[in-house]
Amino acid sequence: MYARDEVHTLEQARLAGLGRASRDLYQLLSATNAAQPADLLRRLQCKRGGEVTLSTVHHGLLALMRAGLAHRVAHHGYVRCALGEAAHTPAFLVCEACGAAGEHDASGDIARLRAVLGRRFVSPGAELVLSGICARCQGERVSHLEAG
Ligand SMILES: [Zn+2]
Ligand SMILES: [Zn+2]
Questions:
Q1: Cα of 55 from ligand 2 centre, angstroms
Q2: What is the CATH number of the domain that holds 18?
């Protein structure tokens, strides 16, 4: 584990090796809600003017993922890595009500799944995305029920 400001320094070191588009995208990405490339393009254009294209966004996101600073959440878009630190295989818990995408390290789970599947199904870039209702929204549901 790293102290909070050490994590910050690590991020800064990784970001320093990347282009301007990646650094700007990293600022726009959230660790809790996934964003689609078209959405990021619009926000980047607001920030920098018309010089940015969708391919700038895709290249920037790819560089961020290679540096371990962002992840793609299947069907939902991109998030900033919430775990940082060492290499990990993320699992995302995506809330159907508010869209929040919580990240968990599922390295061990994916390894077990690979062992079970063997050669029947090969998925080198496997990531887990679970849909459901987050704790915050569950709380809101409960209070709705209590009120009614
Ligand atoms: Zn991560
Ligand atoms: Zn929620």
A1: 31
A2: 3.30.1490.190
